[in-house]
Amino acid sequence: MLEQRYRWKNKHLREHTDVLDGNRAPHILLKDAVYLNQVFRKWMKANIWIYDDRIVYVGEKLPDKLDGCEIVDCKEQYLVPGYIEPHSHPSQLYNPLSLSHYASNFGTTTLINDNLVLFLQLEKKKAFSLLRELRNIPATMYWWCRFDAQTEIQNEEMIFSHGEVKSWLEHDAVLQGGELTGWPRLLAGDDMLLHWMQEAKRMRKQIEGHFPGASEKTLAKMMLFGADADHEAMTGKEVMSRLMQGYTVSLRHSSIRPDLPKLLDEIQELGIEHFDKFLFTTDGSPPSFYEQGLTDNMIRIAIEKGIPVIDAYNMATINIARYYNIEYLHGNIATGRVANINFLEDKENPTPVSVLAKGKWVKRNGIESAEFAKVNWDEYDFKPMQLDWDIEANDLEFSMPFGIEMVNDVITKPYSISFDVSYEELSFKHDECFLMMVDANGKWRINTLLKGFANKLCGFASSYSHTGDIILIGKRKEDMIIAFNRLKEIGGGIVMTENGNVIYELPLTLNGVMSSEPVRELIQKENEMKNLLQERGYPFSDPVYSLSFFSSTHLPYIRVTQEGMYDVMNKTVLFPPIMR
Description:
Blueprint: H1 10-20, E1 28-37, E2 42-51, E3 54-59, E4 70-73, E5 78-81, E6 83-88, H2 96-105, E7 108-113, H3 116-121, H4 124-133, E8 140-145, H5 156-159, H6 162-170, E9 174-178, H7 183-187, H8 191-202, E10 206-208, H9 216-225, E11 229-230, H10 236-244, E12 248-252, H11 260-269, E13 278-281, H12 295-304, H13 309-314, H14 318-323, E14 341-344, E15 354-357, E16 360-364, E17 367-368, E18 402-406, E19 412-416, E20 432-438, E21 444-451, E22 459-462, E23 470-474, H15 477-489, E24 493-498, E25 501-507, H16 519-535, H17 543-549, E26 558-561, E27 564-567, E28 572-575, E29 578-579
Parallel strand pairs: 1-4, 1-5, 6-7, 7-8, 8-9, 9-10, 11-12, 12-13, 18-21
Antiparallel strand pairs: 1-2, 2-3, 5-14, 14-15, 15-16, 16-17, 18-19, 20-21, 20-23, 21-29, 22-23, 22-24, 24-25, 26-27, 27-28
Domain Amidohydrolase-related: 78-362
Keywords: Hydrolase
Protein name: adenine deaminase
């Protein structure tokens, strides 16, 4: 499924060479630019010619023709390639378009995105049409191809069919298979998963691992199966073990794993002096984590931790482009590359004052462009949720002998319920709440107790979840129903209620899982939600990830899934869902 065989057609290539011959003027001339040349590993001076979205020349010469050309004096600035995020989850309240707009203002002009939401929410034709439209925005969007749902879903073998996976792998915007959250199945003998990996390798595409806590032997096995990189190292020793087995290592700094400062300290203590096999990733963090920046913040941390400045930039640019075999387009400032360029005031301040993305100014002298791009989400079946069913009092009956206890933001374990839960309200003197996950179509439900989420939360409803099903949490059943009813009215989202009143709402009008609002607004709304939850006893830092990971079976120990209450370690459904 090759959606675009060549980036530039023959007529475009002829126009590009016409600029060199003096028959056409470039559109932008960056004059006297000091830029990072990663071949020579030094800062060099040149004139940079840009035509449309491409760098057509880097060197000492000036164009013969300058009619209509925008000439930019680059004195007292330093130019680096646009940053690349190699492991983006573009649906953490924001959507792919709003994330790319926000990210580009901090210099991250290329994102390599998880396709899971598109895979689960859209039929293939619509998804591929959306990918085609997203080619037209200033930021550059590439994708992964998932091999599993990262949870137990109904009819998974039909959703993740061989034909569907192979079509995604063949798409030219897809650069890798993975991430391999279902790797235990591979070790257990899943030959279909192994076949998909073989197909990805045949197509010269990478395989991204997901191997938290993996032993040296497991890492070696996964390398033999075809894995190329992993982003789950949490210590310097884990980084070293991955390098020893031949992996490229993504150093992660995310909302639930802000590990970069520690990792950089520990890898330097271990004597690692060469950084060509390292990438940076923020691993799809929620909006508020990006308040101070994205990849630019990681580069800053690296420089502060004593990483050589050029290596710090390389881990966000050329290293990623080389790993994904897109160096001929991205990751460096050179003839023939896409014109993604960041303009810095200081070599050690990676947050740009100006940004070119595909030859367009998305930020100029500190002022962000109001114009970016728009998508008609309705056209791609991303619409407000239409919930034509109700939560009744008999849905909120709780009789399960055990519940789910939160160990941290994302790890959950089972615990025995030791008191009568047949009341309409639970006491505020403990941290146990009612928890119900209900099918988005109203066909089934799972009821249990949730310990450790909050102690004063009356009602909470969220359509934001890993699978798009509805999560209800609270101490008061009446407030849970009110929260659900308000969620229906706003077409999906997150709602909090207290004593019969709605105290917070965040509409997620794109199928109940994403917002169409700008990231800056989502930062404020997420911070408001976190503050309200923490006032009501939420003890952790990241409720967005907590909501997403209630169903995620790639982490221990117990999860609520479409198949029922699921024991991750024993791969067993403990209680099936109750049909409504």
